[in-house]
Design the sequence.
């Protein structure tokens, strides 16, 4: 294949990857705590120096937190700032920022999909579906008939919140879960603040994604014209050679 056609093809493949990423982001504008996908590309100058085209790189998550909305529900929890809740799945530890929790039949604190929410000391078990959770993630259970002052006496557990570097690679597992490809660290109190009675909104900006969509489509159209123009030029050259022979 001619180098210019190869460059055009690879550029179109990169644009298709960008369009797929934008489509995923736009489809999850209303998904709680969804983190938009960002396609990282190798630097143009570095690729040209190496004699290679500029290709779409790996997909990363934009870890910037979304805005918080109040729900008033005791088991709705959001993180103000960086950090992820740890949960246990059949595939091992996973992490989420979707804090729409509930208490299952076994008294465990679980996600909406039934995955056990992990505390600093393991699974969290409660006797009430109306606990108090402070900004450090400490959970104060409320047995039937107790007062608020009694409820705040002793914490029964503390939510396990981990910190992940912004550039760390992750793998989406679906249902708002990700698997970390690096070892996480427990987040400090100043790095992540827990907000009870709130859920985090998606951090997708629809207007920004539409701009990305238009840019990718226009770039793909330009590359398509380059490929068609080069093909036409080759055709003309071949016809002229045939006329000369």
Sequence:
């Amino acid at each position: 294949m001619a180098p210019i056609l190869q460059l055009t093809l690879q550029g179109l493949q990169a644009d298709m990857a960008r369009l797929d990423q934008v489509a995923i982001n736009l489809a999850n504008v209303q998904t709680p705590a969804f983190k938009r996908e960002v396609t990282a590309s190798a630097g143009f100058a570095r690729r040209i120096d190496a004699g290679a085209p500029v290709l779409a790189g790996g997909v990363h998550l934009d870890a910037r937190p979304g805005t918080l909305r109040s729900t008033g529900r005791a088991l709705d929890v959001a993180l103000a700032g960086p950090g992820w809740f740890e949960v246990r799945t059949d595939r091992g530890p996973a992490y989420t920022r979707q804090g729409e929790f509930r208490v299952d039949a076994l008294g465990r604190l679980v996600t909406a999909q039934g995955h056990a929410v992990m505390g600093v000391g393991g699974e969290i078990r409660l006797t009430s579906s109306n606990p108090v959770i402070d900004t450090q993630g400490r959970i104060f259970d409320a047995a039937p008939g107790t007062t608020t002052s009694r409820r705040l006496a002793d914490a029964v557990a503390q939510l396990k919140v981990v910190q992940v570097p912004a550039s760390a690679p992750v793998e989406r597992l679906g249902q708002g879960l990700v698997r970390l490809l690096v070892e996480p660290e427990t987040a400090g109190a100043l790095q992540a603040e827990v907000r009870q009675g709130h859920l985090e909104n998606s951090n997708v900006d629809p207007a920004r994604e539409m701009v990305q969509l238009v840019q990718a489509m226009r770039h793909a159209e330009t590359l398509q014209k380059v490929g068609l123009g080069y093909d036409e030029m080759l055709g003309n050259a071949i016809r002229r050679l045939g006329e000369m022979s």
